[in-house]
Amino acid sequence: MVSTVFYVFIFLLALLSYIFIKRNNREPHKRLKLPPGSMGWPYIGETLKLYSQDPNSFFAAKQKRYGEIFKTHILGCKCIMLASPEAAKFVLVTQAHLFKPTYPKSKERLIGPSALFFHQGDYHIRLRKLVQGSLSLVAIRNLVSDIQAIAVSASDSWVSGQIISTFHEMKRYSFEVGILAIFGHLEERYREELKKNYSIVDRGYNSFPTNIPGTPYKKALLARKRLSKILSEIISERKEKRLLEKDLLGCLLNSKDEKGQVLTDEQLADNIIGVLFAAQDTTASVMTWIVKYLHDHPKLLEAVKAEQKEIGKFNDLNNLPLSWTQTRKMPVSYKVVLESLRMASIISFTFREAVDDVEYKGYLIPKGWKVMPLFRNIHHNPEFFTDPQKFDPSRFEVPPKPNTFMPFGSGVHACPGNELAKLEILTMVHHLVTKFRWEVVGSESGIQYGPFPVPQEGLPARFWRESSS
Ligand code: HEM
Ligand SMILES: *[C@@H]1O[C@H](CO)[C@@H](O)[C@H](O)[C@H]1NC(C)=O
């Protein structure tokens, strides 16, 4: 009896959805078909499957079966995944206007809805120019010695032989570099308040979104409010002093649109928190992976060490800090950074949403569906990177084929912080290999996602200061 009712119900549901789909089939795309793939159960869809196995093998298995474009259901959304360089370029570059960024509302609320990466069109272009300007090569070349000083002070607390979480330490470093890029030299008091409150926001970011008091998400929302207050204070102080600084805050404060409008305090705050957010965990996870890769490949470590000690010796003799020119001439270390970006592919994929029905190679990408370029699959495809599971920096002696290497994304939303990130990473590599040796502790295999892949428990490790010789 119960099962009859159940089947009737399913039948009606199927009928209704059939009628609904027919009605929605608009004329121009009548003959287009959806990409291949299995949708699993609606809502639960394939989410369970995605979370019960390594996401990379999940996507890789589908790619093997269906090819460069396939559909699926994850997190309650209808998704189309793109696993080829051309498809990624189509969505991110050539037809970028047809695909808007899309993030869960709960995350948008935490960071601030006016942050540039949630937007598309004029507002995005305006903000992007400002952010790009403050992070350009011309701007960041003046930051080298400050970044080096931050690397030195970040490692001050490492007691010889004591176990520390590499990721945690790298996060402290990347946070301070972020603060430097945004505010220039910021008063200690403000830095501390921002750091403490931001870490509460950070903890809430991956927790279940709810307004129930005492939960990590709610605490994060409250901390986010306090951040706005602190930022308002910093901003009004800056306005009083009428400083024309070239840091991000300076660029944002000086901006006027064509009607002469300045940015509101909320727009300023959302974008500052947005950049801090985009800058911290990303860079810290890449550096954590580099510490692991160099540990796992002693010969490479020796080569990097030789390169960096050469620079270090010259600077120590002449009592000089690291220079911009030196950071641009670290070929061995630079290839290690590139290969780490490829291997770890910490931004495994991104999300967009089709703003209209779009045709790609005879397939229909329906309006409202999510679209995911799969960076990691492209970076791990043997067609583009031979023996992809092997850590081999020398592969970057030849530049990768167009659109096959996108650790910083591509197109209108590509990472404006990529040069700063690389500078910051190279500076840390220089400091690490010239002043320390290290040993990775315990389980060496696991990966944890939070949301970026990082070695298990943030890579616990012991560091020892090297006697300078
Ligand atoms: C190794 C470190 C980093 C990696 C791997 C990385 C990666 C990326 C990627 C893949 C995107 C594009 C996302 C998409 O298209 O959906 C992106 C966007 C962005 N990144 Fe980074 N990033 C890093 C460091 C930084 C740093 C240091 C900053 C700032 C100081 C930064 C600021 C931004 C901003 C503001 C955006 C949004 C751009 C827009 O929407 O127009 N990132 N990043
Ligand atoms: C957060 O910011 C407020 C100022 O709004 C400050 O008084 C407080 O010490 C900061 N730290 C924490 C952990 O809340």
From TrEMBL:
TM stretches of this protein: 6-21
Q: What is this protein called?
A: Abscisic acid 8'-hydroxylase CYP707A1 isoform X1
Q: Is Coiled coil there in the keyword field? A: no
Tell me the superkingdom of the source. Eukaryota
Topology relative to the membrane: Single-pass membrane protein
Q: Where in the cell is it found?
A: Membrane
What is the name of the gene encoding this protein? LOC107419950
| Gene3D superfamilies (UniProt xref) | Cytochrome P450
Give the keywords, sorted: Heme, Iron, Membrane, Metal-binding, Monooxygenase, Oxidoreductase, Transmembrane, Transmembrane helix
Describe the family membership recorded for this protein in Swiss-Prot or TrEMBL: Belongs to the cytochrome P450 family.
Among InterPro entries, the record links this protein to: Cyt_P450, Cyt_P450_CS, Cyt_P450_E_grp-I, Cyt_P450_sf
